TrEMBL record:
The active site is at E59. InterPro entries: Glycos_transf_N (IPR007507), Glycos_transf_N_sf (IPR038107), Kdotransferase (IPR039901). Residues 34-210 form the 3-deoxy-D-manno-octulosonic-acid transferase N-terminal domain. This is 3-deoxy-D-manno-octulosonic acid transferase. It comes from the Bacteria. GO terms for molecular function: Kdo transferase activity. Belongs to the glycosyltransferase group 1 family. Glycosyltransferase 30 subfamily. Coiled coil: none annotated. It is found in: Cell inner membrane; Cell membrane. It comes from Marinobacter nauticus (Marinobacter hydrocarbonoclasticus). GO terms for cellular component: plasma membrane. Keywords: Cell membrane, Lipopolysaccharide biosynthesis, Membrane, Signal-anchor, Transferase, Transmembrane. The record marks E129, K207 as: Transition state stabilizer.
Amino acid sequence: MFQFIYSLLIRLALPFILIRLWWQGRKAPALRQDWQHRLGRVPSIPGPVIWVHAVSVGETIAAGPMVRRLLARNLGATILMTAMTDTGLAQARKMFGNRVTYAYAPYDTPGAIRRFLRRVNPRILVIMETEIWPNMISQCRRKNVPVFLINARLSERSARGYERVRGLAAPIMKSITWVAAQAEPDAERFRRIGVAASHVEVTGSVKFDVDIPEDVRLASEGFRTTLGPRPVWIAGSTHCGEDEQLLQAHRLVLAGHPDALLIIVPRHPERFDAVAVMAQELGFQVARRSQGQGAGGVQVYLADTMGELMMLYGASDLAFVGGSLIERGGHNPLEPAAWGIPLFSGPHVFNFETIYERLLADQGVQLVQRADDLARAVDLLFANAAERKAYGARALEVVNKNRGALDRVVDGIIERL
């Protein structure tokens, strides 16, 4: 009954979802491209297919090392990467070019999922983190397509929500073939909501297995050369409500370090123009990367391009990870940590609870509450090269000592193929 009611509601909502997609496409034309994919009308793929689904940019980046390992194993299968967002697919294309196939994930209606599965005919479905779509999972089970949740995490709040409708959600949970959980608390919550205990395994977070491709390292070194010896800090994946706070912090930093540069990287492309205007109205000299403007002589460098955040982290002395000064839940702090640079976050990091616990335990991250706290912390590390180096080394050590989940996940996928 639950499946019937859910499917009916999403069918009724579908026309409005498509209208909203078309409306959003005014500012992001890529959303209108290949919109038929969302109804399951994707090109047919011959031969065996490994379907990897990541909802957006963060999950796509997390899936990157896993996909590289699968490609290196020469499994004789096409890897199909899907995402719900245009930015997610753009990130995947930037990472893999023509080595994999791409499509938008279908909306979770019975018809769209059926059409998609008929055209793709995957051997397995690998879902990054916790994108639990009832029709996607149940129809994969009907076609004997194993469903894996990789790097899976489940907050206590979400677990309680599933428990309230356990009788309705249990059939979906029982259809999941394997949950590779980030930590034991996540695994325990998945068992609580109905996933068979024998199907749940703690593999650790694959995000600790972050790799920095050689071309990214070279690009980062080249960009840093253009910045010169000035102190540089970066605010990555920022959200509405954070940018003004970060600009206020930068004003305070400039009082002690007049040549300091802030690289600001908004999470969503539709906010690029608004952040540029905000910085200019606050009196900062601003350059925009998308317009080919250099950072020499400016105070704020707006990185309004896609897929370059990892490279920009490597060109910076310090990093602030966004989505954390507001109640967004934070973003992945391991990308700057892998470069061995000190990192900061706001207090709201519940999306990466386990990772932050490990960073905090080894003093590999500083949590700040407000803009003035952040400014003081940045100022202190800019003034003390030895402490800056020590903080970065601690962050990198946390990454290195927690590696290994990726091998366990890749081996588990291949074993279950």
